[in-house]
Amino acid sequence: MSAKIAVLGLVIEEPSAPYRLTAKLRQRLASAEFVDSNVYSALSRLEREGLVRPVAVDAAQLAESEVRKPTSRSDPRRFEATPRGVRHFEDWLLASSSTPPLRDDLHMKIALCQPHNLPRLIDLVYGQELVCLGRVEELKRSFERVRAPDPSRWSGLSRVLVRDAELTFWDSRMTWLQGVRKSLEQMSRDFQGATRER
Amino acid sequence: MAPLLSLTGISKSYSRGRQYVRVLEDVSLEVDPGEFVAIWGGRGQGKTTLLKIAARLETPDSGAVRFDGIDMMGLSEARHARLMLERIGWVRRTGPRSELEMIDYVALPLLARHRRRRAYALAAQALERVGMEECADQRWESLSGGERVLLGIAHGIVRSPQLLLVDDPTANLDVVEREHVTGLLRSLADDEGISVLMAVPDAPASIKAHNIGSLGAGRLSFASKSPVPPRRPDTPGEDGDNVIRLRGRG
A66-72 — which CB contacts under 8 Å span 24+ positions? Predict the structure, then answer.
């Protein structure tokens, strides 16, 4: 998912200033790990492509902003979506989603590990389990910082569903890692036993 | 703060057919007063075993269990039964297959210690606390999955326990019901100071706990221990959504 489409979606929800958009993006799509500069460059591109346009806060502020770099941190303008922007977003929303890439350093290490390295690999796998747990904890904390979403309303339900998507990702990775660790531990015990017998 | 419940160095193995399976390996866990701890782990990873050991309904191969400083393994059967009756609640997912109305079912554990009127008043309060007062005259068979869980919680809290043990309360619930049930458990900890130890098979069900532990391949791990926020004794839940009203919501 690109920052551009995420920013466009948020602007359609509610015309907002760049600083508000960065906060919303962090809150709503924490795991995507967008940084502030992603929002500013996305807004610049969206504005260039005619998908969003600035709404003046007041004439004096707007005049002042025009001498600054557009969509900088001090930009006082709010942005709203143009009709073309709304169409562009809906085209994206209704198109089928691409399959996420699956390319993991750990897969390669497991594939190429030799039995004498199993103890180290077990530690690496357990380290990854702690990473998963840490990400779940981060999501939990980010949700605790804001008012609990009400899942009986669409706005709340959509937040819960996106949060669940992220949690389910870490959940299934955790299940896989624990299964891997269990197998590696068994393999390591067998290998050590066989080595001792020799 | 001294933990209300502590499990130290717990190990437990089972034989499954010809295999000897070690489900818990040197597992340690503490639950503070008013803390909500979720144990998240896949099926067959030992979550229910851990809960049963916490309540001394199962004996570990090694390790110690202390509740409020009491060595659970050293208790006589009578003292253990009394502890389970008065201070530890277990949320069941199974209910009475009888003609009992739900108010009778929730009042039942109290009838040995209280007069009938008092027992029924407390049962009505527990039903109200979980937002199920309208189900007082219903029978178990007529309740939905979500309502049964809430009834189980009412049955678990009616004796005002210090510790509530909850095994997989969100199984077969939809997202809205799951959020309500876990929100209710969180509010029991935050608002009433009940410690909650809950086992769940997936991360989304664990997210409202103060602390989340992951149990798998014998190990229990915590990312870091978050402090329990100060208790809010007389304030309603954050947005009132802790009052559960599953009936008529859709």
Answer: A70/A44, A71/A18, A71/A40, A71/A43, A71/A44, A71/A47, A72/A40
